[in-house]
Amino acid sequence: MATMKKTFYYNFLPTKAEEKEAAQQVIGSLVEIRESTHLFIDPNNPWQIRKSVARNDVINGKLTLSQDEMLEYVFRYWTLDMANDVVKGNKSLVVLIDYTDETDPKRYQTESFYVEKGPCHTYNLACMNLFRTRLLNPGDEIGLFWDLSSVSFSFKVLQRVNPID
After folding, report:
1. What does the angle CA 73 – CA 114 – CA 118 come to, to the nearest 5 degrees?
2. How deeply is 127 buried, as exposed, middle or buried, from its count of CB atoms within 10 A (0-12, 13-18, 19+)?
3. DSSP three-state, residue 36
4. Which range among 4-8, 84-88, 125-129 has the greatest average pLDDT?
């Protein structure tokens, strides 16, 4: 499948008007680049984003994702308007399907599941109900990917630090 890769374009030479408006900050905007390569997602191991849950993730009920992870594995499948909305600081409601129990996936679709811009070139996937349901702890390894067929995040607990009986 051909996708439109998103990347940041930084305007290092703004006009006088842009410079005054932005208070001399470097202005960046999200742009699309057509890719000639096709992404392949291994159906046996689709978890493109793998991370160890951090203490702050558990406290805040939000998974912190890097800008690179969002650009490479999520925003490329979103429209430019949807991605720019999040980049500009707005929340975007998302659906998340939890495949930890493969025989009974659980679908989350509420206002408490959203993506938002975080600090220092990061993004947050808010999912407090998922943290509570799955009893996620710091150090647990999780997997995520954006599923085009269901237009949702797919989630799975891959490994627990302290297995639950």
Report:
1. 75
2. buried
3. coil
4. 125-129
